[in-house]
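Lab meeting notes turned into a lecture example. A postdoc, R.K., suggested we walk through two folding results consecutively so the class can see how the record format repeats. The first protein's sequence and structure tokens come next.
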Amino acid sequence: MRSVFEPGQHTTVPVTGSDQVFPVNRIFCIGKNYAEHVREMGSDPSDTPPCVFMKPADCLVVGDGDLPYPSATDDLHYEGELVVALSKGGKDLDRAAVEDAIFGYAAGLDMTRRDVQAGLKERRLPWDMAKSFDGCAAISEIKPKADAGNPHATNLKLSVNGDVRQNDTTAKMIWPVVDALVHLSTLIELKPGDLLFTGTPEGVGQVVRGDRMDLVIADVAELSVTLK
């Protein structure tokens, strides 16, 4: 059978310290995973289970450089996050199986059209278009888990034009990495190549064209992008 059109290239992410690349399958994201961020967005952090949404893999911007400013928004927000990369999958996984499935970790930006999100929330509609658009996420190189220190309790710091906006520890996650993936595996079969953006601490805010965002997750990765 002939394809109607030439298939697009697979999105890949470099692996730190090697000539390997990580082929991205799907991007899952957790919302409401740091209590203070939940409060700053006007919600109750005691709500469970975690809010899970997705982003398209082909909209992922890889590495340092330019990040496109999206259409249809006047209120674009950054969210600095620890990202988990899976090299194995499965359904209804236990904690040991999740640990075995994790390949490594990265630093990531979950970009949000906040004005679009607010309008959709008001009408009680899904807010996919607030989270899923061209350049809606960025990611650093992926560091293998053996080299990534303790990503479950490390510092996450995001600066905009040199001004620190987010500075917290991943230990404050309501749903830590393994718990979140165990839960996600009850909803969908996880697969090799899946990424999980694990949520953001307090301090999110607006950025405009020309702003530079520097994200540092201690012992894991760094990412620097400029909005164009």
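The second example is placed directly after the first for contrast:
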Amino acid sequence: MDEAIPGLPDRISGDMVSTIAHLTHVSGIAAPTGGGRALEDARLLAPILAPPHNIMCVGKNYHAHAQEFSRSGFDAGSTAADAVPEYPIIFTKPSGAISAHGDDIPLWPGIDAAVDYEAELAVVIGRGGRGISRANALAHVFGYTIINDVTARDLQRQHKQWFLGKGIDGFGPMGPWIVTADEIDGSDLRVTCRVNGETRQNATTADLIFDVPTLIETISRCVTLCPGDVIATGTPEGVGIGFNPPRFLGDGDVIEVEIAGIGVLRNTVRRMPGATPKPSHAVLEAK
């Protein structure tokens, strides 16, 4: 049987953030009806186009990645002694970076020399709140999706913070859809990333330094989480800066991020007009 996208009940808005808020607070919603629309004929948008806050991200949240990042020379101010964080490192990625499954990852002129990939499990908040305890955190999860936290490593190093290097337009592919929390266990999902078919990252969320409940507790202590908020949980070992020399993305590279139980997020790197031509897998020495 061909896969289809069912229509939503009339009472639910087509906007995913308001839909999540509605589904979280109202019981007895009628099931989708009708034949829907063939998936193969549809263009999928990012499941959350405008979360209530920026995408909330977590840095260095896998042990092996924390070590490779510290060794890379791109982690400004970090040493081997403090490579693994004692507390979650939280930063944000603006919603303007969000793009969809199948969209191109842009190489923008002047900021295209050290573009890297990061495969991540993303948590979508359902019931909002502040001061959420770790014990109750999973009751606030609507579901899970995939994010590729694309990063300009040279900007990340130069500015000694992560917002600019990760906040570039088009540097946040998300999707291809949300899988609701009743369908999968986010605590032990296989996360892989392939560049032109070559496996670069391969780990499981069981290896997270700070798990999903801890992240929700930490963030909600300071920020009131809202339905539709997105938390990117961090990336495992195997990013481009983990190689010697680093292996960055070039024009035409195809990036596939796969998470068990969710699916595959696929995007192609494209040079924008005026960008400096670079071969696939461009390299830049750490300084």
